[in-house]
Amino acid sequence: MSEPSARDLQALAEMRLSASYYLAGYSVECGLKAIIALSFRAQVIPNRKLVNQIYSHQLLELINLAGLKTKLLERTKASEHFNANWAVVSDWTEETRYQTTDPFMAVAMFQAVSDQQAGVLPWLKTHW
Fold first, then answer.
1. Domain extents for the chain?
2. What is the pLDDT of residues 22-51, one digit of tens each?
């Protein structure tokens, strides 16, 4: 295998930045699924329809399954910053793993997910 050229490394740098957009959104999906998992009870077989729905990658559907729809509406109304962050995050789909994302959107997504004051993931953690 040959050593990577500068052009190869430039392409990798762009691809890795695009991957950060996808992974940040995926962290929100995993956080929502963690909240849903808390609703399962030991020694009780969960409803099959619910289990199948959990395999969704649609964040709004997962918000509903996690029982957070009302709380999300309350949070977006209470904080313009959180509302803006949710707007960025809610555009994410699992299909973005096949797309190239510009650096601005990758950074915006990371900040929207991780911002300690108004990020989506810190908000989800309050429901763990």
1. 6-125
2. 999 999 999 999 999 999 999 999 999 999
* Tokens representing residue 69 in the block: 């729809």
pTM of the model: 0.90
- Averaged over 74-91, what is the pLDDT? 98
Helices 103-114, 6-37: axis angle to 10 degrees equals 30
